[in-house]
Structures are given as structure tokens and as C-alpha cells.
Amino acid sequence: MVVLPAGSSSIGVVEELAGVRIEVGGLPPFKVTLNYRLALSKTELTMSEYALCEREGHCPRVRTKYTGRYVILELTGQYPVIASWNDAQKYAEWLSRKTGRHYRLPSEVEWEYAARGGTKSAFWYSNEYDASKANSRDSMSINPFNAHTENKPIQVGQYPPNPFGLYDMYGNLAEWVQDCFNIFWSPEDLRAGEDDAVVVDGDVSSITEHPTNGSAYDNSEQCKKWGGTTWGGKKFAYRVYRGGSFEQGSDDFPNSYSRGCLTPSSQEEGIRLAVSLSD
Q1: How far apart are CA 273 and CA 102, in angstroms?
Q2: What is the pLDDT of residues 103-120, one digit of tens each?
Q3: For residues 118 and 101, what is the distance between their CA atoms, to the nearest angstrom?
Q4: 3 state DSSP class of 220
Q5: How far apart are CA 198 and CA 275, in angstroms?
Q6: Which stretch, 84-88, 106-110, 214-218, 231-235, has highest mean pLDDT?
Q7: Which three-class secondary structure state does DSSP give residue 228?
Q8: In whole angstroms, what is the distance from residue 220 CA to residue 237 CA?
Q9: Alpha-carbon distance 194 to 218, whole Å?
């Protein structure tokens, strides 16, 4: 675990990035203050770590192979676990019981605060995407860890850490956060047909202010307005992931403020845990 420095940071599309088109559902700019001691996993959760929980019967099984176009990769040891949001909750419960500390997924704001590493640029190293800084679709031609075959997950910690000492905050696997998905832009910002505007579909009456104290947005009824419906007609909330993956490249590689969402049962993303040291 890496202890993050307490402080304040700009979150979302900050002023320095004015003119950058914002992804649908991106967070509006605001300042967040973390006035508590927080630690995040130095790397994404590995297969070896997750296997301990799985062997005790508390965590569901996850995939042990990655099948790409040209390769079949055995996911063991220091490879990151590819899991669902629900799997992450189970692992956090298990680890909390084992250690007596309250482990959890980071909130979306905590994740972005950590990913920025005290910087204000789109990526912690600059405003421009650099394939040498993260495992991405473009990395296989320039990095020996990902050469010869195709883009694929690699063992954690192979690329440079950010200024806070965290590895793979961009690339390798996108990472689940605690928050459910919602749209936070004001109705005035939702102007279709303008290059500098966010265009979304949905009921803008559900737009609410995002917490600025580092906590997760987890209002289940509010989030269900932007969620889906099961075959049985039951509403659910999509869960947010951050950070991008090995499957993305220069034309679509997420940065510090980009966000996406999936159903909580989708075994598609990575896990990075948080713990409040005052807990």
C-alpha cells in the first residue's frame, strides 16, 4: 500500500485543459479536499493475492486465461486479476476480516486524486499520451514486456510509477471504483450540437452534485436512473471504472479524468483497494 499525501486537487476537466472535448459522463471540474490519511494499493491486485480468497471459498472464480487473437496467456502470479465489481466487494470483505482494517474500493474522486499524483495535466506526466508510460495497444511495438505478439495484459509494475509511487494507474487494466454511474453536468452544460458541450441521453432531472470530500457517489435510487434493467425487470446501477486498458491506444486512451461504466457483474476490469488509515 502507498500512503497518499493529504491535500486538495482539481478533479474533472480542469482549467488548464480548456477546449478539450469531454467524454459523455465525464466529471465537471471541481476541487476536492482529502483531509484524511488514505492508502491505495501500489499495483493492481494480482492473481496470487486474489487466489488466497478464492481458495477459502469467499471469492468467486475469475478467469485464469486471456485469449487474444494470436496468444493464449496463463493468468497467474503477478498478472492482474480480471474481475467484476461484485468480485472486488467480496475480496475487500475477505481482506478486511483477515486484517481487521476496512479495505474497500476507492471512490472515483480518490482514484482521480491518486492518478493525478499532484499534477494538473491530462496524464500525470503531461497533457499528451505517451505509449512508453503505460501498457496500451500501442506499447507492443516499443516495449519489450509487450512485444512480438499483440497487446495483452502484463505483470503488474512494469511501467514507471506516478509521482505518488502508484503503478499502472493508466493502462494494463481499467480499475473499478466504488461509485455508481451518474451524470453530474448541469442542464445548462448539456447543449447538443456544440463542440465544447457534453451531449448525453437521459433524464437530466437526475443530475446532482458530486461529493467533494472524497466520498463515493453511491445513491442507489439516483444511480438507477442511469442504470439498466435485468430480464426480470429489476433495475440496477452501473458501476464506474477508471484508467483505461491494454486494449486502448492513442486514439481512445483514457486519461486522469476519463470514466466508463459497466454492469457490476461484468468480469472485465482490475481491482485496486483503498484503506482509510483512520479507520
Answers
A1: 10
A2: 999 998 899 899 988 887
A3: 26
A4: helix
A5: 33
A6: 84-88
A7: strand
A8: 7
A9: 31
